[in-house]
């Protein structure tokens, strides 16, 4: 049989089967994938809102010595309330300047400690070192320590915390 | 390209032999009633797949079971669909397995040499009912709780060992978190394993013997 310019029946059936198969496949796959990743999508779409958290009277914090303040936040994850604790190093550089550092290591999220002797924040996990101003002094971290915006109202220090 | 890949795999895995051994067999003249076994198998696979997906969010603990299902229904994309399929599929599967049993009974398909197909079938029916019984408790709502209270109480009416059976089912005298945990384990591990094994024997028998035709006047 000479090759006709039209689709042969065989080709036609192949194309239709392929198309219908793809359609059915995606009708099944999309809900399945959506179901699995939906908490991640919700997290990215972000109901992130920021709050000012009071961390006590400014006078409580000594000048020149980073001091850890811990607080907890609860949020709803799926079917339960999760309570996370956070640490913030309050560093009063001088009377007028206060910096609030997150204690979460910028490498892979272990928690850093202030080491008075060495005048550095040290991470126990992979030996990161940060200066008192949060700059990387050694080790693997890709960027300086993260900071929270601060404000003082009626003598009380607040940090601006973004809930993610 | 696709052909080349297929040939490469076929040479090693013997794919075309699988086809000829399992599907290329003589089939007597049959009718729609003969599709009930395959329909049961299909429903079992659907239940398996949707069940695996439900297990992603479901938690078998008295504190969280109910809330985790609420989350599946309202918080997760397509959760209502997956739970809905599992929910209705459960009832459908019981109906189809039962209808399939009636079909093999009335067509006399259980006779020599297919007695073992029938026996494995009986286990499959009981296991399917067991899936329904254990799955019903998992939502941990009022209906689930009281249905299982009643169900385990009924098991207790067996003479002599009744109270022991109730306690064994419940994992203690009361319906509790222990009951929920063991029903969950039976629902997702024990019974599916039994059903898979039995389906294996069942289908092996069908491949080996072929299916029985519709009996005629001489049978
Ligand atoms: C999970 C449940 C079950 C599955 C997946 C299943 C699957 C199948 C399939 C695919 C067949 C091929 C023929 C047909 O579809 O009619 C078959 C045949 C058969 N089944 Fe089942 N079955 C199940 C439960 C049962 C039960 C509860 C019984 C009876 C107590 C039973 C007894 C038989 C018999 C005797 C045959 C042979 C029929 C013949 O050779 O014509 N099965 N089964
Ligand atoms: S997490 Fe801190 S150094 Fe790796």
Molecular structure report:
The complex is a heterodimer of chains A (164) and B (219). With 164 residues, chain A is of the alpha+beta class. Chain A is 23% helix and 41% strand. Chain A has one helix and eleven strands; from the N terminus they run αβββββββββββ. In chain A, the strands form three sheets. In chain A, strands 2-3-4-9 form a four-stranded antiparallel beta sheet, with no helix packed on it. In chain A, β5 and β6 (120-122) form a beta hairpin. Chain A starts with 8 loop residues before the first helix and ends with a strand. Chain B is an all-alpha fold and 219 residues long. Chain B has a single domain (36-209), classed as Cytochrome Bc1 Complex, Chain C, CATH 1.20.810. Chain B contains nine helices and no strands. Chain B has helices at residues 2-13, 15-22, 36-54, 65-74, 79-106, 115-137, 142-155, 162-170, 177-209. The longest helix of chain B has 33 residues, at 177-209. Chain B starts with a helix and ends in a 10-residue tail after the last helix. At the A-B interface, α1 of A face α4 and α5 of B. The complex binds protoporphyrin IX containing FE and FE2/S2 (inorganic) cluster (FES). FE2/S2 (inorganic) cluster binds at residues 105, 107-110, 123, 125-126, 128, 139-140 of chain A.
Just name the CATH architecture of the largest domain in chain A: 3-layer Sandwich
Total number of helices of chain A: 1
Measured on Cα atoms, how large is the radius of gyration of chain A?
27 Å
**Would you state the CATH class of the largest domain in chain A?**
Mainly Beta
CATH evolutionary superfamily of the largest domain in chain A: Rieske [2Fe-2S] iron-sulphur domain
Secondary-structure element order of chain B, N to C: HHHHHHHHH
**Count of domain modules of chain A:** 2
Question: How much beta of chain B, percentage-wise?
Answer: under 5%
Mean pLDDT of chain B, rounded to whole units?
95
Greatest contact pair? A-B, 12 and 16 residues
- CATH topology of chain B, anyone? Cytochrome Bc1 Complex, Chain C
Shape of chain A: elongated
- Share of helical residues of chain A: 10-25%
Biggest sheet features of chain A: 4 strands, antiparallel
Structural class designation of chain A: alpha+beta
